[in-house]
Specification:
7-stranded mixed sheet, 11 helices, 2 domains, alpha/beta, binds pyridoxal-5'-phosphate, Aspartate Aminotransferase, domain 1, 15% strand, Aspartate Aminotransferase, domain 2
Length: 376
């Protein structure tokens, strides 16, 4: 840092130069985040200094957070849920598993997740010192409930189902997992970081949330398809006792207990999530999901015309394509300015069709992809 500060104009110019190097979302088909809705940005700005780590100083923001948690709960089948606004899917997953582990069932705890689980579960293994067991997938990349059952033992403190897998946008059979959880008396966490703001708005109905009796907790991220500013995740528990497993005594704040992983934390995202959810309403999100699914169907229709098949019929706005030499195709598409992604197993081209993608850009992308696939 300099001894004498620089003037504002110079600093803003420097920032603009840095910002100009960032990638504009309109050619990005690899991200699960998107442009935040303008009302979320406005709300975020209004609450910049609000610290939910010390809610006694910010009772208004604290109440907003409660409202957002209740809204998420209503959307996901239980308005009476308990939780808080996290920094995203990773923190929500960590905290859900931490709560399950802290229940004290085992000194040598393990959890059973699907092979398609997000890499946050690898962080969980490291941080929480729980054995993360991976259950096999079926041919549609959903977790196989029989494989889950086979991995359970007396030290299993949680099962995890994914509603909207990161790589395939697939929905695990959460009803079956819920039945197993109820039968065996095991905590079930549903990671709907991406799916929470998609699945309720699809034409087809899926059982994946608190309406299933075995579901104990859920991850649901406003900062993905919820169009909120970053970093906004939702951690929800059915029972207050599970949230209580996370409590820490905070002697010198305006409150004496904290449940969150971070201490100081943003009230701005709680306000932003409140604003965008109130503004969009269920109909607004339904329109957004319909738009993304329309583009998704168009993508599949077009690639089939030039002989490329998706690995599964897309369930949500994630498409995985068998393009042959995936890495080569990805590299050439990158040279043409397109940001795409890959799946791990099998290796294939992964595309996320977010609201920032216009119909025109999609056609341009498909023209380029067709050229590349035909040439290779
Ligand atoms: N869970 C799932 C299913 C995800 O797709 C992601 C991110 O894409 C996460 C968790 C992690 O979310 P975050 O990056 O917000 O921590």
């Amino acid at each position: 840092m300099r001894d004498k500060g620089e003037n504002e104009q110079d600093i803003l110019e420097q920032l603009s130069a840095y910002r100009a190097r960032d990638i504009s979302y309109d050619r990005v088909l690899s991200a699960m985040c998107t442009h935040p809705h303008p009302i979320a940005v406005k709300a975020h700005e209004m609450f910049m200094e609000a610290n939910l780590g010390d809610p006694g100083l910010f009772p208004g923001t604290h109440e907003l957070e409660h409202e957002v948690v209740a809204m998420l709960g209503r959307m996901l089948g239980d308005p009476g849920v308990h939780g808080y606004i996290t920094t995203g899917g990773t923190e929500s997953n960590i905290q859900a598993i931490r709560a399950a582990r802290n229940s004290g069932i085992s000194d040598n705890p393990n959890i059973v997740v699907s092979e398609s689980a997000h890499f946050s579960f690898d962080k969980i293994a490291d941080l929480l010192r729980v054995d993360v067991r991976k259950a096999e997938l079926d041919e549609e990349f959903k977790v196989d409930p029989a494989s889950v059952e086979a991995q359970i033992d007396d030290n299993t403190v949680a099962l995890v189902g994914i509603a909207g897998t990161t790589e395939f946008g697939q929905i695990d059979p959460i009803r079956e997992l819920s039945d197993i959880a109820v039968d065996r008396g095991i905590f079930l966490h549903v990671d709907a970081a991406f799916g929470a703001f998609v699945i309720p708005f699809l034409d087809k109905t899926y059982d994946f949330d608190f309406r299933l009796p075995g579901v104990s907790s859920m991850t649901s991220d406003p900062h993905k398809m919820g169009l909120c500013t970053i970093p906004a995740g939702g951690l929800l528990f059915r029972d207050r006792s599970h949230l209580h497993e996370l409590r820490t005594h905070t002697p010198y704040l305006t409150i004496d207990t904290q449940y969150s992983l971070s201490g100081t934390r943003s009230g701005a995202v709680a306000a932003a999530a409140y604003a965008v959810m109130q503004h969009m309403g269920m109909n607004g999100y339904r329109n957004t999901v319909e738009y993304c699914m329309k583009l998704t169907r168009r993508l599949v229709e077009r690639v089939r015309e030039f002989g490329v098949e998706p690995l599964i019929d897309p369930v949500m706005n994630v498409v995985v394509l068998d393009v042959g030499d995936t890495l080569k195709v990805r590299e050439i598409m990158a040279q043409k300015g397109w940001y795409t992604s890959i799946t791990r197993s099998p290796l294939a081209l992964r595309l996320v069709i977010m609201p920032h993608l216009s119909e025109k850009r999609l056609e341009e992308f498909l023209d380029d992809l067709e050229l590349v696939c035909r040439e290779l």
